[in-house]
């Protein structure tokens, strides 16, 4: 099954919901949210639309039993109640599991992402914008954030 390692890692995240409020498997909701985001979803509504459109396929491939897509508030409340550290630990475990599979060094990739901090640029004082960069080894996991400071972004 594709993404089986990620699903197993997400299953270890403690579920913050009450027992009576668990109609949908949390690990499947999280995995489907990741897949929807990878497919271009940028909001709760778009994640729900993705699940609704792909529900039968997602159920078949991942062994879920969603009779319908969850409500937007179900997903929103889950993300608000989730422990950030627990979720991060699950993704780190997943990245570590992928890195220990023995990927040849020639196939390793490093992803870079940069952001310019809003409001850090000032024309009046001739202050340059502050940039942040994030580096991630695609197989090995999170490498770290680097503050580039007040240098122009190149």
Structure notes:
This protein is of the alpha+beta class and 154 residues long. The chain has 2 domains: 4-99; 106-149, no CATH class. It has helices spanning 4-11, 26-38, 44-62, 72-81, 84-99, and strands at residues 110-116, 131-137, 141-149. It has a 3-stranded antiparallel β-sheet. It starts with a helix and ends in a 5-residue tail after the last strand. 15% of the residues are buried. The model is unreliable at 146-154 (pLDDT under 50).
Percent of residues in helices comes to: 40-55%
The strand line-up of the biggest sheet is: 1-2-3
Percent strand:
5-15%
**Quaternary structure classification:** single chain
**Low-confidence runs (pLDDT<50, min 5 residues)?**
146-154
- Domains (count): 2
Mean pLDDT: 79
Summarize the structure.
This protein is an alpha+beta fold. Helix content is 43%, strand content 15%. The chain has two domains: 4-99; 106-149, no CATH class.
Give the topology:
Blueprint: H1 4-11, H2 26-38, H3 44-62, H4 72-81, H5 84-99, E1 110-116, E2 131-137, E3 141-149
Helix pairs in contact: 1-2, 1-5, 2-3
Please give a handful of descriptors for the protein shown:
single chain; 154 residues; three-stranded antiparallel sheet; disordered C terminus
């Amino acid at each position: 099954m594709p993404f089986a390692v990620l699903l197993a890692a997400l299953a270890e995240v403690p579920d913050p919901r009450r027992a009576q409020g668990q109609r949908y498997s949390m690990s499947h909701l999280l995995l489907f949210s990741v897949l929807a985001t990878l497919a271009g979803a940028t909001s709760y509504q778009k994640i729900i639309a993705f699940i609704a459109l792909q529900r039968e396929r997602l159920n078949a491939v991942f062994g879920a039993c969603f009779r319908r897509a969850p409500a937007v508030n179900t997903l929103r409340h889950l993300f608000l109640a989730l422990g950030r550290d627990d979720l991060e630990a699950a993704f780190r475990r997943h990245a570590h599991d992928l890195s220990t599979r023995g990927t040849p060094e020639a196939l390793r990739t490093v992803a870079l992402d940069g952001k310019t901090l809003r409001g850090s640029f000032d024309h009046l004082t001739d202050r340059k914008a502050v940039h942040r960069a994030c580096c991630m080894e695609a197989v090995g996991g999170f490498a770290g954030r680097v503050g580039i400071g007040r240098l122009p972004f190149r």
